Structures
1.
Amino acid sequence: MCLAPLPTRLKGRASPKAAQAMHDIRAIRDDPDAYDRAWASRGLSPQTPAILEWDRQLRVLQTELQSAQSRRNEASKLIGQAKAKRDEAAASGLMAEVAQLKEKIEDVGVRADVAAAGLQTQLEQLPNLPAADVPTGADEHGNVEARRWGEPFSLPSPKDHVDLGAGLGMMDFEAAARMSGARFVVLRQGLARMERAIAQFMLDMQTQEHGYIEVSPPLLVRDEAVFGTAQLPKFADDLFRTTDGRWLIPTAEVSLTNLVREQITPEEELPLRLTALTPCFRSEAGASGKDTRGMIRQHQFYKVELVAITTPDQSEVEHERMVASAEAVLKRLELPFRTMLLCTGDMGFASRKTFDLEVWLPSQQTYREISSISNCGDFQARRMDARCKAAGEKGTRFVHTLNGSGLAVGRTLVAVMENYQDEGGRIAVPQALHPYMRGVTHIGGEG
């Protein structure tokens, strides 16, 4: 794990196109106050003065560079004409001017590179703009409950999943720590089987009932991929990096969303709905001291990810559909949950609107996040240069990207264990998982 350099495609001379990829610089020029208000709702000070100053410098230098290049080309032609007329004095003067212009072009080019890199750095560190209907708030206390489903089970003295797993002899944090350190777990026997059953159940549900296409993607990706989904450069510390410079995916969102990077997708093929079951790897650098007990926050875990690629006009409807697809898993497992609309201060960096699903955990007597479903608008698409094109149209548009957990497998296992426990420490298998457990109806004891 280490800090990341700029993505490979952004090394060296920065281009104006790359600088504009994070946010629409023309829209910022047209209405800087709207951008500053939006970023202020996410806790940021005014950003557009610095952006517009870098933009002004870049445009001035680009104009100067184009003028010098044009004059150099013109003077080079005149040298040939002067020599044809055997006017050595004119030719000599023009050659001196071309030499001076060459030096000027190099100097102005370097300064233009600096301005473009400055603009790019300024823009790439700024989050997405929240949608108009996202509530304003500083942190999770500003989130709004959209709905809830199910009644929390009444358990007289509920155990947490750690005690339940230890009592069954099927959850071993000590063995995991000996080989890997903290925030890892070894599951055995019935719990290992139930984890696998949960994952397969989720995949089958999303592919067979909700129309998602199953994908088996790479788990190692290059700089460009994590930059495209906005984990880089801001969140490099939250990732694991290999010795050859690749990154272990923190979520299959990275691999699935990048399937359309640098592509123009026909609009008639959208929406594109993708799902994958993968291990996910996170350093949890920003989670020191949080959820150190148990499986809630680990360095390695399985997740069924949902990703949708849509046209701009489809994304809001698709967002609601994706939320419903994730909620359906919890309903089928009969786990009480609530759906929360996140406020501006609690949304992820790339999101313009996010719903969190929070499942009831009896041991904590509260709801805990089990899925986060976000509409990123064109924010990621700009970073990936992912576009769509309508049949018969010449122009293209940036696609909209959406992603969500459908669901986090480990947290779902935790929720099942705690909500389906009995006083003897056995875990009943939810009805929806029976086909995947081959007759096993309880974990612990017989049956």
2.
Amino acid sequence: MNLIKRLKYDIANIIENDPAARSAFEVIILYPSIHALLAYRIAHSLYIKRFYFMARLISQLARFFTGIEIHPGATIGKGLFIDHGMGVVIGETAEIGDNVTIYHGVTLGGTGKDKGKRHPTVGDNVTIGSGAKILGPITIGNGAKIGANAVVVDEVPSFSTAVGIPARIIRQRPKTIIEISEWKKKSMYNEMVI
């Protein structure tokens, strides 16, 4: 998917999920999430071509202007919405699926103990509350919710809710056929929007 199509998708996702967003123009001009994502997408394309210095320069300039730090080595799907954004940190080996919502002060970071893959993998349609810290090469399953200020150092299964320090699963339930159908329908709709 090219840069313009991804940007259109990201803007549409923000408008759909943020009741304060009134128009695409407003999102493009006023939302630091879009500015950080655009810088990330450019920096990431340079990073995979091994222009590491230029990639990091772009990401650091974006951090200066938006307060959102996304390492250009991270892998981010379509439709990431970073609401308010200030203080968000996404590490080099982090992987983020499609249609993820992250609130301010979230860290997808390492523990300092791992080599190679050091950062979390976040599935599709995940919501991460303000101030949450997700640390290490763990997986957050599709449709999971992470509570505000949670510190997550263990796997979180799909369609679960994790809260607390350290985070614990407070709600885990299999989705009903109707809920799965609605989730798939939303995913299919998002594919068609592209």
3.
Amino acid sequence: MNALQRFEGFMERMFEGSFTRLFRSSVHPAEVARRIERAMEGNVTVSVGHSYAPNQYTVHLHPDDYKAFEPYRTRLEREMAAFVRETAQERGWELIGAPRVVISANAEVPRRAIEVESRLAEAPDARADAAEEIAYQPTAAMPVMKPGPRPGPTALPGARPAQPPAALHLISGAAGTVIQITSPLTSLGRELDNDLVIEDSRVSRHHAQILFQHNRYAVRDLGSTNHTFVNGRQVETSVLASGDRISLGGFELQFML
């Protein structure tokens, strides 16, 4: 029995004979669970050896459909969060923090339609500003590269040359891992909205950027706590050459063309 079947069975037991009657003319909780499952599948963030599923979901229902859910909303939200956790376990996906599901009424959603917003959010303690004050305390790091990176420019007749292929070779953390650079701007840091997410306490939430401008690559520090270094020299912005070693507060990478 998979997570969805267990959820459907629980709903039947929870409402017993009134289950079908309550949701006969409205959205069925199992339909919501299936939509959440699809949102999980479509928004998995793939990292080096890890796959992270979204851990926060907002379900939008038409107000008339929401009425059937409202008396049981707290219980349903809790059970749907448990469904997210079980589904992630079955699929081999990881969750950052406890899953959370919120069911809300939205007049812009058509009758009997279901809209689900999902996002991968850090646990509250990981977002605390105090984390930025940690200076030079090495921890195990796992870089995460978001799927579907922005494509680099394509060369046209008479145009400037296309962006040459480049890569970052990890020296710290998952040493030996190679991250391809395919965008004119690649952001690096601890926060989940970066292109390359590095889970290391020495790295700031938005630490640095790798840029391709004027037919050359450069690294730019974003006012990080522990600074950015190229070949041991602290920099704000520095043009990169193949083989240069970049240090993000002590987390080491090597730039390669």
4.
Amino acid sequence: MVSLLGAGDELLKLVEGAFDSRVFVRGNEITVTGHRHEAERVARVFEELLRLLDRGLSLTPEVVSRSIEMVREDGPLRPSDVFDDAVLTVRGRSIKPKTVGQKRYVDAIRDQTVVFGIGPAGTGKTYLAMAVAVQALLARDTNRIILTRPAVEAGEKLGFLPGTLSEKIDPYLRPLHDALYEMLDAEQVSRLTESGTIEVAPLGYMRGRTLNDSFIVLDEAQNTTPEQMKMFLTRLGFGSKAVVTGDITQVDLPAGQTSGLNVVREILRGIDGLSFVYLSSRDVVRHRIVQDIVEAYRRFDEARSS
């Protein structure tokens, strides 16, 4: 009961505060009183939390809060479906979806050939795609991983940056390297990179290639031009899978230049094996205030465009 209700009934108070029902605990029995529909929802929350405990998951305020949200939505996915999906386990830590949107995104990556993950910062678009890619590599479902992103952002030009070409490009690719080191040992990353099994390169390096038996992730795709997006998508060879991630609210292209990610949403509708997954502020898994910030910007942009 302590695991279910939390120290000092911390988790119980979260459940009580989310519904217009009263919860009474006596020994190992939980009694819920109130409007029938609300009481049934509270009961479902506790059933899901017990199911998570039975599967060895620890309950935290975040897990309980997100479980409550899922139950209140009455959607087809249950909290146990979401939180029990270990995409990748590394050094005793499992990378899992934490929201319904993230779960749908992970399922789409597994099932589709090309997936576009579109949403604000903090929704795990790139991180989850890379986790699925690493798992596919470790399970030998793919022969190599290719991680790429546009090398020029926010109007900066590589020629004005100091250092060699590699040194100029590295800052743009550093986030991808950092995520890799969270998922694999440093020695593994070095060995797989040297052998070409894992490649981290700017988007321009994809031109003229055919990428067979590869798991390819294009990050920050909102900063591609329509021509670059077409070039990337037509690199896909046999036995390959591609995930394209981006945030259409943070386009860093020069003024007047169209984002390839915006254009492709109109062009590629209804293609079998290709899926668009949209994540929102509700899927932000960083500090809670980030979710509020993203939502505030969304409302501001809507008001300005109306």
